[in-house]
Known about the structure:
The structure holds 2 protein chains of 2 kinds. By secondary structure, chain A is an alpha/beta fold. In chain A, 36% of the residues lie in helices and 17% in strands. Chain A contains 15 helices and 13 strands. By secondary structure, chain B is an alpha+beta fold. Chain B contains 2 helices and 5 strands; from the N terminus they run βαβαβββ. Chain B has helices at 11-15, 28-38; strands spanning 2-7, 19-23, 48-51, 54-56, 67-71. Chain B has a 5-stranded mixed beta sheet with strand order 2-1-5-3-4. In chain B, a hairpin with a 2-residue loop joins strand 3 and strand 4. The radius of gyration of chain B is 12 Å and the shape is globular. The interface between A and B is large, with 51 and 27 residues.
Amino acid sequence: MQLNQRYIRQQILPGFGIGSQEKLTKAKVLIIGMGGLGCPILQYLVGAGVGTIGIMDGDKISESNLHRQLLYDTNQLGLMKVEVAASKMRLQNPLVQIHTHPYSLFKENAFQLIEQYDFVIDATDNFIAKYLINDVSVILNKPWIYGAVSGFEGQIAVFNLKEADGHSLNYRHLFPEQPEVNEIPTCEEAGIIGVLPGIIGTMQAAEAIKIITGIGKPLQNTLLNYNLITSSWYSIHMDSAVSSPTINQQFFDEMIYDHHCVWTENDIDVEDIDVDEIDVTSFVEIQNNKDIFILDVREFHEYPVIDFAHAQIPMSALKQSIAQLPNLPIYVICHQGIRSIYAAQLIKLQKSMDVYSVKGGLTAYFNQINHEQ
Amino acid sequence: MEVQVLFFGSITDITNVTETMVASCADTDTLISQLIQQYPTLSNKKYFIALNQKMIQTNSPLKSGDTVALMPPFSGG
């Protein structure tokens, strides 16, 4: 291979060279998720000249993506993320083959997709995908690069890449069982500062380049955590003494990844249950009635503390507590009226009384109160 | 004797702090039950424990100056 002007600045690096560039050209990498993590991962791998890159995401561009997903423009709202990302990146580096997979990862398509690539970079925002990537990568004996964010923290790790002594660890060593939907807040609920997935995604791209070229030592068997507020990194090591379930084809076949299915009772899906919303004007009128029960489903740390709820049961603890709710019409309230819909659906699944979600949550409630004053 | 405890991710939603010092604790099981007394919702949370930056899966003795981390799963992207 000739020295290509495009890659010259990395090729002249001692220890990198033409050999590493050839390895990059031959590599086939799948990035699952084209959001806050996926955008910077793709940009740097395209820039570096990774030969074939698959990008997978079933989502369209929405306005709330734009502060952190910098491949997308204001005039591209509603377009498929993978299509927009691919056309932009083909201009950046025409030497890279970009394959688009405009759908989500499911148990049914995971094997066939991951099989086509050397390894996966996880840029997803949910546990269904993370556990699917983990289990399929373990069975196919491929490494995968994990990345995730939570609040002001982010973390990365390289899983299922064998150490010199032959042992390798996977995500089920950390968390053998998949957390349930809504057990851990998502970015939509918890919020996210755009630069954080930018930092974590860029770190994932660096690990990908190390795995492909063999330079340096990848972050295997180590979970590296970054806290943006304190500008601090904290690493946790995992040795071969750590145990985990054996992941094989049978394990995969029997595993339920999409927990929505687990929550169906009598063939009713929780998310299909109709919930009546009550607007804050009507809620204010009835909130002092004696024969109703107002339930706050925010976590205990959330502000402001309110005095008109009859109970506060955080979403994370609600499922276990539904049986204890009184037989009164229940009005569920949260910060913005999103979690309260889900909570109301869960309650309706188990109890037959009327359940309402307060539309717009406490944000709308306090707007209304302040407006009246 | 004192042990430093670090909280990560959604665990800090419960504790409201990222670290705390805990006095006299024989082992990690005792430490966790003390933390649950202080933060009852911690008992519903998923996390793994690391002692001095190394993941542990069984009860481990603690000595002064040890650091224990509670790491929950992260899923945002």
